[in-house]
Specification:
The chain is α+β, with helices and mostly antiparallel strands. It has seven helices and 13 strands. This is Metallo-beta-lactamase superfamily protein.
Length: about 290
Amino acid sequence: MAVQLAPLPEVERLSPACIRIVGGNPGKFTLQGTNTYLLGTGPRRLLVDTGEGKPSWIAALRKTLAEEKAHVAKALITHWHHDHVQGIDDLLEYSPQTELHKNQHQQAPVVCPHDIADGQRFQVQGATLTAVHTPGHTVDHMSFVFEEEDAMFTGDNVLGHGTAVFEDLGTYLGSLEEMKTLFKGRAYPGHGPVIPDGPAKITEYIQHRRQREEQVVQTLRSKRSVAEVSADTDDANAWSPMELVRVIYQDVPETLYPAAAGGVVQILQKLEKDGKVAAEGERWRFNSRSPL
């Protein structure tokens, strides 16, 4: 059964210099919706992400800026996924003077004219952000350290509920290891509520991924009975990703198995690079020569 998520206010001041505006696009993968953040205390503000292009989002942003007597000087995009960039057109229609910044800026449904470099700083009154290239969820993914609060905008690498998906597990884990050392306070995620202890949550993410990896290894090392072997193979030592899912994710609804299988494939590919498993077509087996 899916967990019922507590609703988030459409607009909420999270700190003196940070206002969250939710994108109006709740869903299975977006949770309560895409979080966008308006930062600063003066007339010039920074905006992190632009949502999915829902009319409610630009209306809420316009209303908030009018109340704050402010404008968006620069918009910073965490990554190219549509639910973070499709509000760009609405933003520019309302605020054509806003500068758009994105890492690998030409790789997006909407091209952003300005790149973001690792270590680049963005500053307005009350808010200083330092960009950190943290690939894994996507190759262009950026996080931002919020200097005044010793906090971090984690994009979709770390969420307020559950765990995140990723394109490359090894790269993702490397980014998480770096992220947890860069701040000590809150994490402001791309989806879900604020995380009070960001580094602790990132440590949980790393431990969870390591645990899943170990479960895959241990399952591959086990030998199935004849009754468990699929009809298309008589090899009790070779497993398909879905067969692994059915063992490892027994506590998860079967409707989520396809998504889980995608994560298992990522784990298998990492383990193959580590020399711990070997691929045989669409099946996998433990590498008996591996020291582990």
